Amino acid sequence: MDIVEINDTKRKIMEAAGEIFAQKGFNSTTIREICNSAGTHVGSVNYHFKDKKNLYEEVLQHTHISALKKYPPDLGLKKNSSPEDKLRAYINSMLLRILDDGFPAWHGKLMAQEFANPTNVVHKIIEKSIKPSQQYLASIVREILGIEKENKNEIAVFLCTISIVGQCLQFFKGKEVIEGLCPKDFNTKDIEMLTNQITLFSLGGIQEVKKEINKKNN
Asked: Helix, strand or coil for residue 173?
């Protein structure tokens, strides 16, 4: 579903809904305030989306897919790139999706709202978009660990992927705390700096996991 395929009224509703859902969450948002913001009649939500839940699902899926198209997990790297470069690209793309104010400004906050207070929609997002992305990250981790395919060490691989993703999400979810603790020269919007830090930290951690795996196998 590309934005060009959405008619003007539907697009206005989705954009208004995205901003309000991101600010207030699904349960606290009303159809009336969405339509007031979009400048449309209250009945237009029922006409285009049937109800608030379907509207929320369509907004969430559309913005997530659009963000992945703009910032794909590999960021256009060549297939023969090193696993370290792949990991850096993955981290960079994720930070861009959740911290970039330009696409759209409410995307990261909307996803954070859903993860903090999940609805039934999150399961569809996990299966369609998040799971394939996580599987790609797992393949990168296996490559760094020297594991050719899924095996008995898959839990270690999974924990590595969750640690990497968690570091990225922390700079969004813990933004206020981080800004209250950080040095004056620290810029929470410096995505390149954050990418480098998370990549270096993650690579170091993965190498330690690799040592533990080798100990168990010897």
From this structure: helix
